[in-house]
Amino acid sequence: MGYHLSPLLSDIVIKMNAKTYTAVFAVLAAATLLELWIAGLEIARWTMIQAMLALAAVKILLISLYYMHLRYEWRSASILALPALALIAALSIAILMG
Prior knowledge:
about 0% strand, mainly alpha
């Protein structure tokens, strides 16, 4: 009895390989180290917040596109992420104002 993947999952498995996952992981690790370095700097609070939010946005994008496979997902499934993005934007603005 064999194991069969759905056509969509089969395409994802073919397109993604260990080299891609490793490269994305390396970028995520570098971004995390950069965040730690920035946190130790003596810079203005506003500048630090902007830098951290920019790095967080890059990390969120990489994780959702590659590890959650939204890069190959249908548009309707990607639309489900919009309320979460709206919440993130609202919370970011609240943090910046407070």
